[in-house]
Design goal:
Strand content: 35-45%
Number of domains: 3
Oligomer: single chain
CATH class of the largest domain: Mainly Beta
Number of helices: 4
Order of helices and strands: HEEEEEEEEEHEHEHE
Structural class: alpha+beta
Number of strands: 12
Shape: elongated
CATH architecture of the largest domain: Beta Barrel
């Protein structure tokens, strides 16, 4: 009788359960992005010296099978133009074929896009991405992509981070447990002291902070992003003197370099076309050296991270012969772009 009761209890405990999942048919994503324009555009007035842009967009994916998706996306981007002194808005839309790499959360994609910003053009693109499930329906994803302009021959780059929601019916697959007739299996208690979703027995990082996304071993996951800053300091006619009105812009550059210790910069000096070209070359070098010396002496930036080069009148941004044109060309510019790692946070 005792044996019969134990068998009956085990049978009730281990009766078939239903494991739920999602039979995904569509996914809708919302993302933020960073677009880095081709370097050649930044000095061309017919491109309005377009630089980088930040935007928002949505994409819709049709799940074709376990390996392939078809995706449509549209985005609205705000670009920096005129050497960072103004902004312009643009749109992008197009289609991608997405291939999911087996047994990983990685995927690659390729497609066609239409850009409407300072100029309108068509582009082909290729890229790679990573998708991490938060739940059966919600995922976080990040992508890196390269766009090749078919009309003008330039290459732009982009980074995208977003969240997507899956549509589809809930599916149930039976999970059948063997009936224990002799002896009940021992109860296993799973302990997760830092509440990161990984049991302490498999957790290699047992003190992960709350809200941090972790890998299968309980250690924090990181993502990379690009950060940049642009300096544009005007100078008076026939002068390399740094005055107080320039300090705020120079300090912004110094603060950036103090935050990102591995960054370095080339400081470029430029002149207008007024005067002798050899004299202007020397004057532009003095302007670049003046900004470099301020960064070293006032803001204590290590000299090994700085270099200065004068270009004279060889890289005019305005080719007219008016006082306004000359004023635009009398300048020192610098731009720093670097990659930084950030801890990924749970959605």
């Amino acid at each position: 009788m005792k044996t019969f009761k134990m068998a009956l209890l085990a049978a009730l405990i281990s009766s078939p359960l239903a494991a739920e999942g999602i039979d995904k048919t569509w996914e809708v994503g919302v993302f933020g992005e960073y677009i880095k324009s081709a370097t050649g555009k930044e000095t061309m007035t017919d491109w309005q010296q377009i630089e980088a842009g930040k935007g928002l967009g949505i994409d819709v994916q049709k799940i074709i099978n376990e390996r392939w998706n078809a995706r449509f996306e549209v985005a609205r981007t705000r670009y920096d133009i005129d050497n960072g002194n103004d902004t312009d808005y643009g749109t992008r839309f197009g289609l991608d074929a997405v291939y999911k790499i087996e047994d990983t959360d990685l995927y690659v994609f390729a497609g066609m896009k239409r850009f409407n910003n300072v100029k309108d053009y068509n582009a082909v693109n290729v890229g790679a991405g990573y998708s991490a499930e938060v739940s059966d329906r919600v995922s976080l994803y990040g992508e890196a992509v390269v766009y090749r302009d078919l009309d003008y021959g330039y290459t732009d780059q982009g980074l995208k981070f977003g969240v997507k929601y899956a549509f589809g019916k809930t599916k149930k697959s039976p999970v059948i447990n063997d009936v224990v007739t002799k002896k009940a299996a021992p109860i296993v208690v799973n302990v997760d002291m830092d509440n990161d979703g990984v049991n302490d027995a498999q957790d290699n990082c047992k003190n992960t902070a709350a809200g941090i996304k972790v890998d299968s071993t309980g250690c924090a996951l990181y993502s990379e992003k690009e950060v940049s800053i642009t300096l544009n300091v005007p100078f008076a006619n026939n002068s390399s003197q740094v005055n107080d009105t320039m300090s705020a812009d120079i300090q912004r550059l110094a603060d950036f370099m103090n935050t990102y210790k591995n960054s370095s910069v080339v400081i470029e000096g430029h002149s207008s076309i007024v005067g002798d070209d050899k004299y202007n070359l020397v004057l532009s070098q003095k302007r670049a050296d003046a900004i470099k010396n301020v960064l070293i002496n006032k803001f204590t930036i290590d000299a090994s991270r700085l270099s200065a080069k004068g270009f004279g009148e060889t890289q005019l941004i305005s080719k007219g012969n008016t006082p306004a044109d000359h004023k635009l060309n009398r300048r020192v510019i610098a731009k720093i772009t670097t990659m930084v790692k950030e801890v990924m946070k749970k959605g």
